[in-house]
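For reproducibility, we list the full input for the zinc ion complex.
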Amino acid sequence: MILEIVKYGHPALRAKGKRIEVVNEKIRKLAEDMFATMKDAEGVGLAAQQVGVPVQLCVLDTRDVPNRPSRMKIDGKEINFDDCMPLALVNPEVEKIGPLVLGGEGCLSFPGISADVARPEAVVVKAMGLDGSPIEFEAKGLLARAVQHEHDHLHGILFIDRLNKKERDRVDRDVRRIAAQNS
Ligand code: ZN
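The corresponding predicted structure, in tokenized form, follows.
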């Protein structure tokens, strides 16, 4: 089922997500609907906050962005990240590593806006999968950026909070327009 994606101005986007204690059918159905919603909206990531449910769940799929590759390692071994997509992360913890790199980002809750955001180039992610088993991997490239963007959502942090002053000023008018339409 395709869910409605809430836009900036909606209070769910500023809510810290509740930890998920048990991955039950309800959570699996939410993840399945979020996969469908993300695909429909042609996004690379979606957090539960964005469908109005403040819990620690996000979904990712960075396959269809050939000019912005992702890399993924499990147990120190490079793996074909395509095989892990789409990916759902429950209660993710993200350790950020490496130097800051600037990259373009958009957000399905901010239609039409994109801006450059500086983030660490790599992450180590620990989370739970939809079967309740632990997941641990390292990521670089677009997947590392997307994980950090979604992890922020789960804590009520939005990409506009991470812009430098010049970028923030550049998108300010559009941000205010979206907020006015959605609050
Ligand atoms: Zn977003």
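The pocket of zinc ion is lined by residues 107, 109, 149, 153 (CB under 6 Å). Strands lie at 45-47, 57-60, 70-74, 77-79, 87-106, 114-128, 134-141. Both points were considered when choosing residues for closer inspection.
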